[in-house]
Design goal:
Strand order of the largest sheet: 1-2
Number of strands: 2
Oligomer: single chain
Structural class: alpha+beta
Strand content: 5-15%
Number of domains: 1
Order of helices and strands: HEHHE
Distance between the termini: 26 Å
Number of helices: 3
Helix content: 25-40%
Radius of gyration: 16 Å
Largest sheet: 2 strands, parallel
Length: about 100
Amino acid sequence: MALSPPAEVLRRVEVRMTRQLLLLQEDSPLRFWTIINESVLHQQVGSPEVMAAQCAKLAELSERDNVTIQVLPSTKAAHPATAGQFAIHSDRGRSAFPRR
């Protein structure tokens, strides 16, 4: 897998940080609902400390009323949605993605 150019990395970070701000704002925060496969919680990306911090962040965000995180157990049969990714995006007229 080729690395993205630095400008693209910065753009992606900007988009993610903007979405995070919209999730955390007090007045009419962005609603986020995701379903993740249990296996991604076990996939080592970074050090054990990084993994623990990521899991703690997910747990913290899941306590918010506007965030729903569901885990698809690995012990269940494959769900059709695991064949690829898809997104349903509704922002009530606000964009979670900065315009270029």
